[in-house]
Amino acid sequence: MVGRGAEDLPRSHERSHAKQVPLVKARQALPLIALSSLLAALPMTSTAADDGVRAPLRSQTVRPALQFVGLPWTNSLGMTFVPVPGTRVLFCIWETRVQDFSAFVQATRHDTGNAMYVAGTHGWETRLGFNWQKSGFDQSSTHPVVGVNWDDAQAFCRWLTESERQAGLIKEQQCYRLPTDAEWSLAVGLTNETGRTPHEKFLGVRDVFPWGTNWPPPKAAGNFDPSLGVDPFARTAPVGSFAANRYGLFDLAGNISEWCEDWWDEEKKFRVLRGAAWNNDCHLCLMSSYRFPNLPAMRIDYYGFRVVLDLKQSERKAATPLQLQQKACAADGTCKELFP
After folding, report:
1. How many domains in the chain?
2. Residue 125: beta bridge partners?
């Protein structure tokens, strides 16, 4: 980055023992909740197609998002969203899956390119013929989509917003988008960061990780570089393979790095990604306050994204933990605790 000293720059698109990925030329974890306790009270009425991809706008009963303020909610693609205290959005509980992105590409014929950076025998290399469908490693429909850039993520959000507005599932002022850097921080449990830009907040809170304050990460803390020995996955893992945090969000620690809405700094050259990935093992880059800056056009085999549903309820104050409803109730009147 022009005008910045080398000591100011993140060095973490690299494994501690590998070449740096191209930049082209918490609080302590609180009690975890199981996914089943979240989903049991949801209107999960859509069914998977023969190819494993849920297509939006099919005949299905999906209740409008506005009815689920403060409660988990599932959209037309089967993506589940939950509230995060301090925000006016609902966070998808997992990273955008292959099946979600496939539905988007099938509906729009969006061009995702024919090359991306992949981990090769000589470090990170541009490979022709590689993209989100051909990542170089096995990906099922429930793995997080990789090899997508910031613009691809934006196009997905625009399509899903328009599709669900037309179906009457979300209101005209509501929209899907990437989380802001500040929203992502709240989701991972950082409430005391200072600074105006992601660059200024970079590593401002030390030695706090999505799983707590201990290093190295404990077994099953997330999907990281195999050298750490905490998980069985060599590359990506199916979303939700590890325990969720207190808000019901999966994979904030590991699996893939997630594009956020923000610019890295006021120069507006780089966008921001949050969260370590399957190839990260360094102490600093696994901290919750770490950021990864890169050009928005970059497609890499561990870049993906998570979406939020912006409820656009300006008349409501941002919810605090005490204001959030603590139960989700099904149609038969039975209720389950969300945050026991």
Report:
1. 1
2. 118
CA atoms of 135 and 146, how far apart (whole Å): 7
Token pair for residue 31? 């009690």
SS3 letters across 269-337: CCEEEECCCCCCCCCCCCCCCCEEEECCCCCECCEEECCEEECCCCCCCCCCCCCCCCEEECCCCCEEE
> Could you say which DSSP state residue 178 is in?
P
Taking the C-alpha atoms of residue 160 and residue 104, their distance in angstroms, rounded to an integer, is: 8
Q: Is position 12 within any domain?
A: no
Is residue 278 within 8 A of residue 63, CB to CB? The reply is no
CA distances from 212 to 74, 90, 266 (A): 29, 23, 31
- The residue range of the domain holding 157 is 67-327
CATH of the domain at 224: 3.90.1580.10
Is pLDDT at 80 greater than 60 in this prediction? yes
The pLDDT tens digits of the residues spanning 38-48 come to 333 333 333 33
For the stretch 290-314, pLDDT in tens is: 999 999 999 999 999 999 999 986 4
Confidence class of residue 123 from pLDDT cuts 50, 70 and 90? confident
- 0.85 exceeded by the pTM? no
Q: For residues 216 and 51, which has the higher predicted lDDT (pLDDT)?
A: 216
Cβ contact 115:129 at 8 Å:
yes
The β-bridge partners of 164 are: none
In a domain, 58, yes or no: no
Cβ(239)–Cβ(249) under 8 Å? no
